[in-house]
């Protein structure tokens, strides 16, 4: 597969093109293998450039992956907004939210390591920009949730979306164990630990929404 020729970009348009190519390379690597193999050097090779050139466009591997996350979240938020355009029964809303998120495993993976890994090795100014992008997507989803469940206030809808993020952080690692644990969970003695992410997230989301929508939670 031929790689793009990374002659140094001089114009804003050319720089944007280079950044897009680097992000595409990171997405391709994440699709091909494990997070651990998506190193800065591997991203550079996939993008047809050098590691030193990457630093012209991004501060670190962590920033690249956070930018991938923000793009994925923006698309997922837009899809959820289209799915939640009118009031619907709470179980249906929970299913839509959880299924919409589970449909993007890459996003779930990146969310699960945001606080522990990805938000490190990035400057405060860059983190501020990234966080603003994330907030925009999360608030878009919260507005759609408020439309779908009017009993939830605007603030409760924002809290629900934040809780959904936290649920993903907790559930994703346990639902996607490595090869050794996957083999172990096939044994009856340890089968209780085997967990389907989507199923668990639907259940947890519905439980959370029911709790928030109770009169005592108002």
What can you see in these coordinates?
The structure is a single chain. With 218 residues, the protein is an all-alpha fold. The protein has 2 domains: 1-58, Arc Repressor Mutant, subunit A, CATH 1.10.10; 60-217, Tetracycline Repressor, domain 2, CATH 1.10.357. It is built from 11 helices and no strands. It has helices spanning 12-32, 40-47, 51-54, 61-83, 90-102, 105-112, 114-118, 124-148, 154-175, 179-184, 197-213. The N and C termini lie far apart (57 Å). The mean pLDDT is 93.
Task: Give the structure's gist in a few sentences.
With 218 residues, this protein is mainly α. 70% of the residues lie in helices and 0% in strands.
Q: What can be said about the biggest beta sheet?
A: none
Question: How many beta-strand runs?
Answer: 0
Q: Calculate the mean pLDDT score and round it.
A: 93
What is the level 1 CATH name of the largest domain? Mainly Alpha
Give helix % range. 55-70%
Derived structural class? mainly alpha
Give the total of domains. Answer: 2
The global form is globular
Tell me the fraction of residues in β-strands, as a range. Answer: under 5%
Distance between the termini: 57 Å
CATH architecture of the largest domain: Orthogonal Bundle
CA radius of gyration is 19 Å
Order of helices and strands: HHHHHHHHHHH
What name does CATH use for the topology of the largest domain? Tetracycline Repressor, domain 2
Give the count of helical stretches.
Answer: 11
Uncertain residue ranges = none
Query: What is the name of the CATH superfamily of the largest domain?
Result: Tetracycline Repressor, domain 2
